[in-house]
Amino acid sequence: MDVVREIVVSAPGLGEKIKKAREKDTRSVQVLATLAQISTAYWYFIEQEKRSSITEENLRNIEKVLGVNFGVKFPD
Asked: pTM of the full predicted structure?
């Protein structure tokens, strides 16, 4: 049996932070998105904040691929 806990935290400007980190990286969006296990279109939607939310798993994958911690913390 699975137990699911959904916690929502606000991360203003996260899309712009991801975009700036990507622009500093030398790899293409296609490569970064593939490594983060998301589609290129989804990556762009996140950057442009056309999505109202992103899963913690996807955020952590993006952070790992870019080697950046965006400082999004969840309460215990």
From this structure: 0.88
